[in-house]
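Continuing the series of single-chain predictions for the mutant panel. This is the parent chain; the variants come on the following pages.
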Amino acid sequence: MGELVFVGLGLNEETDISLKGLRKAREANAVFAEFYTSLMPQLDAKKLEGLIGKRINVVSRRDLEEEEGKSILEAAQKSKAVLLTPGDPLIATTHVDLRIRAEKNGIRTSIIHGSSIVSAVVGLSGLQNYKFGRSVTIPFIDEGSVDATPYNVVAENQKAGLHTLCFLDIRAEEKRYMTIKDALDALSSLERRKQQYIVTNNTLAVGVARAGSENPVVKADFVKQLQEYDFGNPPHSLVFPGKLHFMEAEALIALAKAPKKTREMAK
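Parent structure:
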């Protein structure tokens, strides 16, 4: 029986890989990597190859989605293959699909987890993990079309008093990475159309940039102010808090420089 191991690379650079993940990659007969589901800003692919001691076959979105990971599955059927992914491997639905295909083809699978933006945002902001609702991706606006799904998800979570983590669109092949300003502009445009008072100038939000690096930026403020804030280079993430516990309010003020009036929003 062949084997396919999904190894998480973490958030920022090649040294974020775990020792166990590194061992699995060194033991593999074939090593693949994808870098399109998330941006690791300080990753050096050549240095990663040096750490592993093997050539890394970089696969594209087309390889994994349109061709259904055929090259990876073929290698895994013959022996042991590793797929390196940014963050934690199975956060991306693309990887879940590949794992299902592998299992259906009689290929044993396993996962070596890596640090994820999901847990990193919780740690950096001080918001409580169990109070997050459904997460959502904010896509780029193409040819004037606006996807209302992110707005609706924030609305649903707010109604339940839950926080919303927004992943911002990435198109690695085009070197396009959505910024917090882009995301807020898109949601503000939807607010003007829907007028449900979900994302207004006075809505509290939290922007996170370059989580996992030595100098991440975490800033909480009202939408109007965040639209003007310089978060620097991507990757960026965005959170809309729901009902705040008083400790969460204090954390946002201390850790994310939130306005003092955030205390008044706590329950």
